[in-house]
């Protein structure tokens, strides 16, 4: 009897630790992207919605191929590389154009691709869809 009781206690303790780690490392629901803003307002990015849609972490976090939802890897912000790029070929956040700003290049092109696949998509493609006036 004592042996089965200890097994249950050990199982519950282990399950609690696993649950704690999973909860502690869960990706955020929303992220405020404000480290690359130039003239426009910050963007409230629906992070969890993108994960739920099946977007791979490495799609945006392209320098962190091992990053997965719930992993304990420290996530680098886009601005850590794109504010003051080390290489001239790295897109810079302060660029406003859709062909030079890394967010504009990746986000808008992906959203436009989604709109081609599904006309009912609500993925934003216009400035003030992401950057609220104010």
Indicate the CATH architecture.
Alpha-Beta Complex
Q: Rg from C-alpha positions?
A: 20 Å
- Element order: H for helix, E for strand: HEEHHHHH
- How much strand content do the residues show? under 5%
* Name given to the CATH homologous superfamily: Cytochrome C3
Mean pLDDT: 78
CATH topology: Cytochrome C3
Number of helices: 6
Distance between the termini: 67 Å
Numbering strands along the chain, what is their spatial order in the largest sheet? Answer: 1-2
Secondary structure tally: strands: 2
Write the layout of secondary structure elements.
Layout: H1 2-24, E1 31-33, E2 43-45, H2 47-52, H3 57-60, H4 79-82, H5 102-117, H6 127-130
Antiparallel strand pairs: 1-2
Q: Can you offer a commentary on this structure?
A:
By secondary structure, the protein is mainly alpha-helical. It has one domain (28-130): Cytochrome C3. 43% of the residues lie in helices and 4% in strands. The chain has 6 helices and 2 strands. The chain has helices at 2-24, 47-52, 57-60, 79-82, 102-117, 127-130; strands at 31-33, 43-45. It has a two-stranded antiparallel ribbon with strand order 1-2. The longest helix is centred in the first third of the chain and has 23 residues, at 2-24. The radius of gyration is 20 Å and the shape is globular.
